[in-house]
Amino acid sequence: MLKLSHINKVYHVGDTVTKAQNDVSVQFRQQEFVAILGPSGSGKTTMLNIIGGLDRYDSGDLLIKGKSTKNFKDSDWDAYRNNSVGFIFQSYNLISHLSIMENVEMGMTLSGVPAAKKWQMATEALVRVGLKDQIHKQPNQLSGGQMQRVAIARAIANNPEILLADEPTGALDSETSEEIMQLIRDLSKDRLVIMVTHNPDLAHQYADRIINFADGQIQDDSNAFEGEAAQDDFSLNNTKMSYWTAMKLSYTNIRTKKGRTFLTVFASSIGIIGIAVVLALSNGFQKQVDQTQSDALSTMPVTISQVSTDPSAMASNSSTKTKTAKGNTITAEKSDQDKAQHTNKITSQYLDYLNKMPKKDAKNIAISYGTGMNLIRQVDGKYKSVTFSNTDPDKAASGASAMMSSSGSGINGSVYPVDRNGKQSFLKTYYKVVAGSYPTKATDVVLVLNKDNSLNINALKNLGFNVKEGQKYNYKDLVGTTVKLVGNDDYYTKLPTGNFIPETDYSTMATKAATQTLTVKGIIRVKSSDSDGILASGVAYSANLTKKVLDANKNSAIVAAQKSSNNSVVTGQSMDKATRESTLATLGGTSEPTNIQIYPTKFKQKDKVLNYLDKYNKGKSTANKVVYTDLASTISTMTGGIMDAITYVLIAFAGISLVTSMIMIAIITYTSVLERTKEIGVLKALGARKKDITRVFDAETFILGFGAGVFGIFVAWLLTFPINAILANVTGLSGVAVLNPTQAIVLVIISTVLTMLGGHIPARMAAKKDAAIALRAE
Ligand code: ADP
User: Fold this and answer.
1) Which of 92, 263, 329, 604 could form a disulfide with 151 if both were Cys (CB 3.0 to 4.6 A apart)?
2) For ligand 1, is residue 21 a contact (CB within 6 Å)?
3) How far is CA 702 from CA 56, 132, 268, 760, in A?
4) Confidence class of residue 7 from pLDDT cuts 50, 70 and 90?
5) Ligand 1 in contact with 20 (CB < 6 A)?
6) Which atom of ligand 1 is nearest to the CA of 772?
7) pLDDT bucket at 402, cuts 50 / 70 / 90
8) Are 772 and 55 in contact (CB under 8 A)?
9) Quick check: 447 and 478 in contact, CB under 8 A?
10) pLDDT for position 482
11) Which atom of ligand 1 is nearest to the CA of 40?
12) CA–CA distance, 598 with 743 (Å, rounded to integer)
């Protein structure tokens, strides 16, 4: 069965060389009970370990059923230990955190025997060793003799051909020893049993053959075997521990140390808690900052007016102040302000350029024109002329001259920008509908309320309402109000003199084909007081409506006449250049905008918008430059940067505690490795591979790391409540700390990975442990 041929084994410790096996040659039968006797330190255990594949010989050969093991790989030895050999030790070496059943099954678990078969074979083995009634106990509930029986059951559970026992009765009283010897003798009836013992009496009483050992050599052999071993077919099944088994081993081990495990998990989770809280706060603050910024921005768009102040011109002018008076002449000069005044040429080319601005940088661009609108409304059954103006009609100049002076926003109401993707996101962002609905068509207009639900009285007066200050309206009184928009050609009649006069037959106008109906679609109110005043209280309409009016009126007769005349075609009076231009604009004869407002999507995008606008001016003469005003420039661009910097610093600190906990886990795993040395030896004796051992400890750190991650996130989440309560108290901001689920998951993964990294090195150390040494450890 087994043949040792000239086996040598030397141990070097420092300068001392111990010849533990000195040219040992011996053969064993297929079935016999061999006792090995000899003084302590003579090399008995070393021989047993070499036979069992727990230790390697230096030279010679071990033949198993005639097959040489010289070229055995680690995996062959693992399989050999698992399939063919059962070990029994003096100190039983049961895995204390597993049940008796699980201990007995372990060898089969390692070789992947199905659960039902495992259970059946383990039960048979336990019955055979006389422990039928103890199956459901834990190892530490048994006596020494019973524990050794469990160990024997484990050794024979998958019917190995070889049973190796190293002083199996060394720790037992004589009565129990006899029982165990009896049991081993029974087991030797159908296998080879080799037992190392100190006790010559027991050896002589039970064994078939006695070998005396001294100084690493066989001194005598009572029943030597010289026959040739049968050249049996000898094959081995490889072992492999499943991840699940590794997990279970670790889990049951961890469970036996609840207090320590909790402290470990808690300490490791502190880093995660720190980072999670920092991230939660930073998420929340960023949101608040973004909100504040976009609120602030909504009231402070980048503005391009027809006439604006060129900041660069202001700067260069200031240099003149440094000049000192010379001579006695006086120079007539423009004021600095006048010099800095710049007339923007907002050409269609420029509008095209604006249109091409990336939509992600500026979602809304509001373009206002100086055009007026010819509006009439039916009041008490009679049509009368009305306006969208906010100026007091009782104080304004009356009649045609009022119409003529109507450039700018006063007479026009407010224009809100059309979202560049075609949706009304501007209104939806800043305003909520309190009655009716958001406008959808160009002919839909809205009434803008102040935060306190008040409405500019002049807007109502100009719409033809007979209204007194403090008067109350129901929403439904105003929603659905219609106003007719009349084209120039229907509104003005050309007199034989060549002048034009506004018609007064409004009811006829109302029925003209070109006349459009504008409807008050909804009443809106600003959502947040931050954005109060973007649109003035009163009537607001889409920039698309202005476009429509312009398109309808640009070819009207009055516009054509005004274009070719220097005098007013209405009053016949002469006009200066500026008045003529604004008159033409009011009539819809100019396509040049009076004002452009660009709303950057986010505060951070504003720089891109400004860069884009600057790019247009590059290489252009001063006169052709388009100058903008950036009202929001006072808001420091630093806010975002500072937030980021603070977050990084805090995360760095929390990260340090994460690394600290990783080192701690490494130490704890290392301690666990030391504690479980015996277990490692037993697992190896049962055929576990190095990989399997690594896996057991990796599984343990996985459980700890994952536990720490989940626990940390849970605690961080709990912490957000008091943190938010305190912040709400101190700053008035609510719901600042918000834990982002994605970040939470990532943190759990980081915790798991880092702890596994920290624990992996001790795990590898455990795997490398020599099985023979591991089993010798106390
Ligand atoms: P026995 O089982 O007969 O008591 P051992 O086989 O345990 O003897 O030991 C044989 C000799 O080898 C002893 O001198 C022992 O000190 C030495 N020895 C055993 N294992 C080691 C080891 N891992 N390193 C160094 N010396 C060892």
Assistant:
1) 92
2) no
3) 33, 36, 12, 10
4) very high
5) yes
6) 23
7) very low
8) yes
9) yes
10) 92
11) 4
12) 35
pTM of the model: 0.59
Give the other-Cβ count within 10 Å of 322's Cβ.
Answer: 6
CATH (one of 3.40.50.300, 1.10.1200.10, 3.40.120.10, 3.40.50.970) for 2-239: 3.40.50.300
pLDDT (tens digit per residue) in 525-549: 988 776 667 788 889 988 888 888 8
Quick one: which of 755, 761, 733 has its CA closest to 285?
A: 733
- Asked whether 125 and 154 are in contact (CB, 8 A), the reply is yes
* 370 class by beta-carbon count within 10 Å (0-12 exposed, 13-18 middle, 19+ buried): buried
Q: Which of 9, 16, 24, 45 to mutate to test the pocket of ligand 1 (most atoms within 8 A of CB)?
A: 45
Residues 373, 545: Cα–Cα separation, whole Å: 10
Number of residues in the chain: 778
pLDDT over threshold 80, residue 316: no
- Give the residue extent of every domain in the chain: 2-239, 254-293+642-775, 301-314+334-557+592-637
How many angstroms separate the Cα of 145 from the Cα of each of 102, 254, 642? 19, 27, 71
Distance CA 187, CA 189 (A): 5
Q: Is the CB of 13 under 6 A from ligand 1?
A: yes
CA angle 395, 400, 404 (to 5 degrees): 90
